[in-house]
Amino acid sequence: MKDYMLKGENKHIFFNHAEQDAVYKAAKLGTKTEGKTMVMPWLPCIRCTNAIISAGIRKLITHKQMIERTDNKWKYELREGLKLLSEAGVSIVSYDGKVGERAYMHGEEWEA
Question: pTM above 0.90?
Fold first, then answer.
């Protein structure tokens, strides 16, 4: 790996996100995703949104407190992803409550 791939603003373009990996791994293992539910801590970016829609996933469960801490630089992309999900008929449930002991995101540690 080159150092520029691991750091900086564009590091997200060189690696699959967890949602993409989950979809790809399910396909590799022959696990059907059509009509399934995916649990994730925040909203998917557009790349992950497209993977979710293509996989036929019909419901997302997210974490409200994690979404509230999402950096502003991602808000446009997440809003556009939400539009795509809505148009595709993917429902979203945002869990409001504690899910664990501690979480870490954008250099901030907090009770999750």
Answer: no
